[in-house]
């Protein structure tokens, strides 16, 4: 009974405010997507990370968005993000960012990751940072030997 009354109330409210469900769906379907070139995309994220007033939440959000996309960030974006981590004084975030970029290489990690390290190495040296592999984070600390390798 309550559900029927609530449904009637919603229908009355829609009619009085002029909101129609089909109009919203049509607007969504007819909206156009922006077309952004790769260089514009890279420049947008690089400028975002180079902002002087970026905070930890904004940096994490942008990194999470980038790692959620089906792409590997360009080295200049990775460098800008590492410098943002340095400005935020967040070493752990920088290491997690490098781990995420390495994971986004997927099954081509042996080909792409050495190139990425070659490109970002001067920045890592300038900032005094190490890679996850240099810190030993690529190997589990307390892992047991596999029964198939015994």
Automatic annotation (TrEMBL):
GO BP annotations, alphabetical order: mitochondrial electron transport, cytochrome c to oxygen
Subcellular location, record wording: Mitochondrion inner membrane
InterPro entries, alphabetized: Cyt_c_oxidase_su5A/6, Cyt_c_oxidase_su5A/6_sf
Entry keywords, A to Z: Heme, Iron, Membrane, Metal-binding, Mitochondrion, Mitochondrion inner membrane, Phosphoprotein, Transit peptide, Ubl conjugation
GO cellular component: mitochondrial inner membrane; respiratory chain complex IV
Pfam families (alphabetical): COX5A
Membrane topology: Peripheral membrane protein
Transmembrane regions: none
Gene3D superfamilies the UniProt entry points to: Cytochrome c oxidase, subunit Va/VI
Pathway: Energy metabolism; oxidative phosphorylation
Gene Ontology MF terms: metal ion binding
Role according to the record: Component of the cytochrome c oxidase, the last enzyme in the mitochondrial electron transport chain which drives oxidative phosphorylation. The respiratory chain contains 3 multisubunit complexes succinate dehydrogenase (complex II, CII), ubiquinol-cytochrome c oxidoreductase (cytochrome b-c1 complex, complex III, CIII) and cytochrome c oxidase (complex IV, CIV), that cooperate to transfer electrons derived from NADH and succinate to molecular oxygen, creating an electrochemical gradient over the inner membrane that drives transmembrane transport and the ATP synthase.
Subunit: Component of the cytochrome c oxidase (complex IV, CIV), a multisubunit enzyme composed of a catalytic core of 3 subunits and several supernumerary subunits. The complex exists as a monomer or a dimer and forms supercomplexes (SCs) in the inner mitochondrial membrane with ubiquinol-cytochrome c oxidoreductase (cytochrome b-c1 complex, complex III, CIII).
Name of this chain's protein: Cytochrome c oxidase subunit 5A, mitochondrial
Source species of the chain: Clunio marinus
Lineage summary: Eukaryota, Metazoa, Ecdysozoa, Arthropoda, Hexapoda
């Amino acid at each position: 009974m309550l559900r029927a009354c609530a449904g009637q109330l919603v229908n009355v409210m829609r009619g009085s405010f002029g909101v129609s469900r089909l109009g919203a769906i049509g607007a969504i379907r007819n909206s156009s997507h922006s077309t952004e070139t790769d260089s514009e995309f890279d420049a947008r994220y690089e400028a975002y990370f180079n902002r002087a007033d970026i905070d930890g939440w904004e940096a994490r959000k942008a990194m999470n968005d980038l790692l959620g996309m089906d792409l590997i960030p360009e080295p200049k974006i990775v460098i800008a993000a590492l410098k943002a981590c340095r400005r935020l004084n967040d070493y752990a975030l920088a290491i997690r960012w490098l781990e995420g970029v390495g994971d986004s290489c997927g099954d081509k990690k042996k080909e792409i990751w050495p190139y990425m390290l070659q490109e970002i190495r001067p920045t890592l040296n300038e900032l005094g940072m190490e890679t996850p592999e240099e810190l030993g984070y690529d190997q589990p600390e307390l892992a047991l030997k596999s029964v198939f390798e015994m």
